[in-house]
């Protein structure tokens, strides 16, 4: 690229001059390309890699010089020889002659510099230069990354870091490249090159650690290798980015949602580091937004715009609290520096006024925000108040316009249809007016009071309600409430039953989703009503198992409400649909919240607070099970080994976490756990689980098996009581599983919760997230390995491949799928990968991916005809016709080629070519084949061809008919062989011949195989011709028989169709062709003439199309007529003469020319060379190894593990 001229004092240092003229010099940097310049080149190359000079300095440059000066100016540089050569040629053609006109050297210098700057200005004018584009340095690094690792343009580099890679005991200094899909390392030290490529999706462990020798280390593990990197300048940034990219890869494996770059990024600030790409900023912004949403429980599409330090005036204690303000599209949030002191969430939909207050020494740069519920929040010490007010005003304007639009839409709907006002009743009736509907919380409808209305429990409940009302008065009520340590204290004391639903909505963040989606739930219920799928079937099965002991779910009202909520969520999120344990949690939500509120609480639970818990593989619960094991090792180490030996942790954690203790604790106690969970998140569940283990530590240590340990824990949890509950005791099903021993002493739930906070309250949410990442890698890779084992176990009995070979092939199959997800394919990745499907169907590939595997694994993949052959093979394997094949179908085809006998291989080859219409441009008949191959000598038949196509299209047979027949056959080989259809098109036969010739292009016995193939081709053509003669004679005999009236009518109709089909197909009159059918002798002569004209076309096609130049001269492709001047092969002049007479009659060849599989098999068996070729064993292990090492330019076929490090030089 052209650059602004910069002076260079030493033009020859570290550079080699390749071209020169009086004014310009083209140079190449030492140590780059071939002939690097000896020891100096090795040193320069090493320094460039270690010091990152190559990212700042391109390997080629052009200097400008004046004849009498020692100062040079660099005017262009390039990363490739092609780029720099284009610039050099432009200079020679456009500037050299012009410069000779000038007399003054200063004028020449000014002219050259002005011209170069003009080119740069013109380029920038034409290019859309964005403020957030990557810097030139980063673009150079990206180009170097793609060149070194042969990555395509689609593989985006995120960032690169200097580090050391430990290979054995020797560190290699180089550069770590982090791209969207790969971690790569490159080192070049004194001529020795080291490369490493690891796919994020293959990582099983990524951790930051420290040792005595290496204080900061990043360790990357895959299934087969472990890699250690050290000596980072900023290890925290490197690890956080690597962690984020690995998370994206795991997410792609989990639900197939790939990475999409965010185009709406904030502008690049002036103080931003120069070595930051737009993609890196994108990922940084995502990470910040994720932390922001998690901290304040905001909707998943909320994006953080920025944050700033400030103070907040808190009227409840009359103090200015130091903290941070966060501003996003729809919210303003605040959190104190001391986390538990105060936090605040202000939705912009609630804001009425934003204004700048008067500044003073006590209150510098204040900002006042007022809300609809008459609360005013005063922020101060804002560094850039004017800019902040402008941003908030912009967001506020957008929010206001959204609300107005929603009101207009709602108003127009209500005014256009009066019935819509009764939408709630109509929606909730389930098509049956007799079914009662839940218009309030189920708990208030089915509350059973004790006989004593004013007992101490009710008095205590009343006091709790008053405490919360006083709290609302002092700290505010609703979403804008000040959340302080006092709020947490009230939650730990227990939320009153009458306020539970309201506060659950508030603390979970579900209130925001419900406020911004009015009418959403009703629409979902209406759409899902009366529809059935697998999820609805599972829901119906579990409805009566959801809190059956509670009176609210012993009648149709509660069951119907539960059905509507679960079905609506299944339609909202088909990826989850319905999972066991959702019914238990949702039934509790319905007790304390209205139907719509319960729905949004379920959304918050499944999508924010317990991510990935409720899916077919309960990945989130398995991840948290791993986290719980780590926490148990840290906090109860004396119990950990015992629990691991008994295998109890994995059993208890799933049941405890999935149902939030609702299924293992008495109901009135478990809802207190749910109170704390909605306020403090998942850490509450971990704390409580650890407390339960700690409380039973001595009993568990004396247990001898898992059953005894589960009994101990079950009895303890059954004894957890809530003495403050005003509800009558509800029998707990779990208590039925305990033994008949003495009951465990009662445990107060509030004391248990407080004890968990006191002993294990130091567990922080951010630490849990880090531990979750580590466990997520392990869990998802374990699931992938389980899927692989299940697939292999399913098909190992159907094939001759060993288990190890099948596992290697499965990883290659999966890698090809992932590669297409990274860099595009001919089909949508979501159609090919669905984790919810059965194991065999989870990964599928399309025809383009199959071609890639075909070329490296299949022994028939040679020559230019490999792709068409792969396409035919793919269509044969695609049994259901969805343009995708699964692993079983793939192995069935590969198994025949690798382990099948000669007959099976030939049958497969035959089937591939008997399928009609494989190629889009393939002629449909021998008649059209003749015309296709002899366009230059045949008359214009375009009209007849189109008419013939339109008529023949009506009788076209779908190739899936053949596939169904073959797949249903489980009979003997002999019977199976007889049922194969005939190869009845010359064009299909030609494709078969091309496939055969293509297979041998790299074989050792190439010439011998070509001879054998030519002999077989000639033999099969003669067999097909003999069939034509027999069929022709049979027709003549039938025509001479007397006809009935019906047959005469039918023959007249066929003749009419024949005339329509051929009326323009020949310049000769149709009576001429009819006269050719008079006598048998003439018929035979004419048949031979016309058929050999077609055969000559075939031989011409085999000569020209197959491009087999190295066939010996004496090879006979087609036996020509011995009476035709004694010439061998086809003669253009003779062919033209026969073709004119033969074309009208060639329709009989179209119908009658055919060969059977038995003929094909018998012909091949006559040639020993072909027999040896098809019986030759295939080295499967060698082909798999080769496929794993293949690394095509622009499209690497990555293996299941990382590349081995390669050392060269």
Automatic annotation (TrEMBL):
<keyword id="KW-0677">Repeat</keyword>
<dbReference type="Pfam" id="PF02893">
    <property type="entry name" value="GRAM"/>
</dbReference>
<dbReference type="InterPro" id="IPR036017">
    <property type="entry name" value="TCB1D9/TCB1D9B_PH-GRAM2"/>
</dbReference>
<dbReference type="InterPro" id="IPR036014">
    <property type="entry name" value="TCB1D9/TCB1D9B_PH-GRAM1"/>
</dbReference>
<dbReference type="InterPro" id="IPR002048">
    <property type="entry name" value="EF_hand_dom"/>
</dbReference>
<comment type="function">
    <text>May act as a GTPase-activating protein for Rab family protein(s).</text>
</comment>
<keyword id="KW-0343">GTPase activation</keyword>
<dbReference type="GO" id="GO:0005509">
    <property type="term" value="F:calcium ion binding"/>
</dbReference>
<protein>
    <recommendedName>
        <fullName>TBC1 domain family member 9</fullName>
    </recommendedName>
</protein>
<dbReference type="InterPro" id="IPR011993">
    <property type="entry name" value="PH-like_dom_sf"/>
</dbReference>
<dbReference type="GO" id="GO:0003008">
    <property type="term" value="P:system process"/>
</dbReference>
<dbReference type="InterPro" id="IPR011992">
    <property type="entry name" value="EF-hand-dom_pair"/>
</dbReference>
<dbReference type="GO" id="GO:0005096">
    <property type="term" value="F:GTPase activator activity"/>
</dbReference>
<feature type="domain" description="EF-hand">
    <location>
        <begin position="865"/>
        <end position="900"/>
    </location>
</feature>
<dbReference type="InterPro" id="IPR000195">
    <property type="entry name" value="Rab-GAP-TBC_dom"/>
</dbReference>
<dbReference type="Pfam" id="PF00566">
    <property type="entry name" value="RabGAP-TBC"/>
</dbReference>
<feature type="domain" description="Rab-GAP TBC">
    <location>
        <begin position="494"/>
        <end position="681"/>
    </location>
</feature>
<dbReference type="InterPro" id="IPR004182">
    <property type="entry name" value="GRAM"/>
</dbReference>
<feature type="region of interest" description="Disordered">
    <location>
        <begin position="1118"/>
        <end position="1143"/>
    </location>
</feature>
<dbReference type="InterPro" id="IPR035969">
    <property type="entry name" value="Rab-GAP_TBC_sf"/>
</dbReference>
């Amino acid at each position: 690229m052209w650059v602004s001229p910069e002076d260079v004092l030493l033009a020859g240092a570290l550079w080699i001059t390749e071209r020169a003229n009086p004014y310009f010099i083209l140079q190449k940097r030492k140590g780059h390309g071939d002939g690097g310049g000896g020891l100096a080149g090795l040193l320069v190359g090493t320094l460039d890699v270690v010091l990152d000079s190559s990212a700042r300095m391109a390997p080629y440059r052009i200097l400008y010089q004046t004849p009498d000066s020692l100062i040079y100016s660099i005017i262009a540089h390039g990363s490739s020889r092609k780029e720099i050569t284009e610039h050099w040629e432009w200079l020679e053609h456009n500037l050299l002659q012009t410069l000779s006109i000038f007399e003054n050297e200063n004028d020449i210098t000014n002219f050259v510099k002005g011209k170069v700057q003009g080119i740069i200005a013109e380029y920038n004018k034409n290019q859309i230069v964005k403020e957030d584009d990557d810097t030139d340095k980063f673009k150079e690094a990206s180009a170097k990354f793609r060149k070194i690792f042969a990555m395509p343009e689609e593989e985006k580099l995120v960032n690169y870091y200097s580090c050391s890679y430990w290979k054995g005991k020797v560190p290699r200094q180089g550069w770590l490249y982090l791209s969207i899909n790969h971690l790569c390392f490159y080192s070049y030290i004194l001529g020795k090159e080291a490369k490493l490529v690891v796919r994020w999706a293959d990582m099983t462990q990524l951790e930051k650690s420290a040792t005595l020798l290496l204080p900061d280390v990043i360790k990357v593990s895959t299934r087969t290798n472990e890699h250690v990197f050290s000596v980072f300048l900023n290890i925290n940034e490197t690890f956080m980015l690597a962690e984020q990219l690995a998370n994206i890869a795991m997410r792609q494996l989990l639900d197939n949602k790939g990475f999409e770059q965010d185009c709406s990024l904030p502008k690049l600030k002036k103080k931003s580091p120069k070595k930051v790409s737009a993609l890196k900023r994108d990922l940084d912004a995502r990470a910040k937004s994720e932390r922001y949403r998690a901290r304040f429980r905001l909707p998943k599409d909320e994006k953080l715009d920025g944050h700033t330090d400030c103070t907040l005036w808190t009227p409840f204690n009359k103090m200015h609290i130091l903290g941070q303000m966060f501003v996003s599209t729809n919210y303003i949030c605040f959190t104190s520096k001391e986390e538990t002191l105060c936090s605040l969430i202000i939705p912009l939909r609630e804001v009425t006024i934003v204004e700048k207050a008067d500044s003073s020494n006590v209150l510098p740069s204040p900002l006042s925000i007022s809300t609809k519920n008459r609360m005013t929040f005063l922020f101060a010490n804002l560094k850039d108040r004017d800019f902040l007010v402008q941003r908030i005003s912009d967001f506020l304007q957008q929010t206001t316009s959204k609300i107005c639009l929603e009101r207009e839409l709602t108003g127009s709907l209500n005014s256009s249809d009066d019935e819509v006002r009764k939408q709630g009743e109509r929606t909730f009736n389930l098509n049956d007016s007799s079914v009662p509907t839940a218009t309030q919380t189920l708990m208030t409808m089915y509350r059973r009071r004790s006989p004593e209305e004013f007992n101490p429990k009710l008095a205590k409940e009343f006091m709790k309600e008053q405490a919360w009302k006083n709290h609302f008065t002092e700290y505010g009520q609703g979403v804008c409430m000040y959340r302080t340590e006092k709020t947490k204290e009230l939650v730990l004391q227990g939320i009153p039953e009458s306020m539970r639903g309201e506060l659950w909505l508030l603390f979970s963040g579900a209130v925001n989703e419900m406020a911004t989606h009015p009418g959403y739930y009703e629409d979902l219920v209406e759409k899902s009503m009366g529809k059935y799928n697998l999820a609805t079937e599972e829901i119906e099965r579990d409805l009566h198992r959801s809190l059956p002991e509670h009176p609210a779910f012993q009648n149709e009202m509660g069951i119907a409400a539960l059905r509507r909520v679960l079905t609506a969520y299944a339609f909202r999120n088909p990826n989850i649909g319905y999972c066991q344990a959702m019914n238990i949690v949702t039934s509790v939500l319905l007790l304390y919240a209205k139907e719509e509120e319960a729905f949004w609480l379920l959304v918050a639970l499944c999508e924010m607070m317990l991510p990935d818990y409720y899916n077919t593989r309960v990945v989130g619960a398995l991840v948290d099970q791993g986290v719980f094991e780590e926490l148990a090792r840290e906090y109860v180490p004396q119990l950990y080994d015992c629990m691991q030996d008994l295998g109890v942790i994995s059993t208890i954690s799933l049941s405890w976490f999935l149902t939030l203790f609702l299924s293992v604790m008495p109901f009135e106690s478990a809802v207190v756990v749910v109170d704390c969970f909605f306020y403090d998140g998942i850490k509450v569940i971990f704390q409580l689980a650890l407390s339960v283990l700690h409380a039973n530590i001595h009993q568990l240590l004396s247990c001898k098996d898992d059953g005894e340990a589960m009994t101990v824990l079950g009895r303890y949890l059954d004894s957890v009581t809530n003495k403050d509950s005003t509800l009558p005791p509800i029998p707990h099903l779990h208590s039925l599983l305990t033994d008949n021993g003495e009951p465990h002493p009662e445990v107060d739930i509030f004391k248990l919760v407080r004890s968990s906070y006191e002993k294990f309250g130091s567990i922080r949410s951010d630490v849990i997230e880090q531990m979750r990442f580590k466990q997520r890698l392990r869990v998802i890779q374990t699931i992938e390995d389980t899927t692989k084992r299940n697939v292999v176990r399913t098909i190992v009995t159907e094939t001759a491949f060993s288990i190890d070979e099948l596992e290697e092939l499965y990883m290659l199959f999966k890698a090809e799928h992932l590669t297409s997800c990274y860099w595009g394919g001919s089909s949508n990745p979501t159609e090919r990968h669905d984790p919810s499907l059965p194991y065999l169907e989870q990964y599928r590939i399309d025809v383009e991916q199959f071609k890639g595997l075909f070329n490296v694994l299949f022994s028939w993949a040679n020559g230019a005809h490999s792709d068409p052959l792969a396409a035919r093979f793919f269509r044969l394997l695609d049994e259901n016709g969805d343009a995708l094949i699964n692993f079983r179908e793939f192995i069935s085809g590969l198994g025949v080629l690798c382990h099948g006998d000669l007959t099976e291989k030939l049958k497969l080859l035959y089937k591939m070519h008997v399928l009609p219409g494989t190629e889009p441009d393939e002629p449909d008949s021998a008649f059209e084949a003749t015309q296709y191959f002899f366009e230059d000598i045949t008359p214009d038949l375009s009209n007849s061809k189109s008419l013939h196509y339109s008529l023949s299209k009506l009788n076209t047979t779908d190739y899936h008919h053949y596939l169904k027949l073959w797949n249903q056959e489980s009979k003997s080989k002999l019977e199976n062989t007889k049922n194969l259809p005939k190869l009845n098109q010359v064009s299909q036969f030609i494709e078969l011949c091309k496939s055969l010739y293509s297979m041998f292009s790299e074989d050792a016995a190439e010439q011998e195989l070509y001879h054998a193939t030519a002999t077989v081709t000639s033999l099969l053509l003669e067999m097909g011709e003999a069939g034509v003669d027999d069929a022709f004679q049979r027709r003549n005999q039938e025509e001479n028989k007397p006809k009935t009236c019906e047959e005469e009518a039918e023959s007249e109709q066929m003749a009419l169709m024949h005339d329509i089909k051929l009326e323009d197909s020949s310049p000769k009159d149709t009576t001429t062709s009819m006269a050719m059918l008079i006598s048998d002798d003439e018929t035979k002569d004419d048949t031979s003439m016309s058929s050999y004209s077609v055969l000559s076309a075939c031989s011409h096609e085999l000569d020209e199309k197959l491009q087999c130049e190295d066939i010996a001269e004496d090879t006979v492709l087609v036996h020509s007529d011995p009476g035709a001047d004694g010439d061998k092969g086809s003669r253009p002049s003779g062919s033209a003469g026969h073709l004119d007479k033969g074309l009208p009659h060639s329709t009989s060849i179209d119908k009658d020319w055919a060969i059977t599989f038995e003929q094909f098999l018998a012909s091949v068996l006559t040639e020993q060379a072909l027999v040896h070729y098809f019986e030759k064993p295939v080295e499967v292990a060698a082909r798999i190894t080769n496929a794993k090492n293949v690394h095509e330019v622009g499209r690497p076929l990555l293996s299941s593990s990382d590349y081995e490090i390669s050392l060269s030089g």
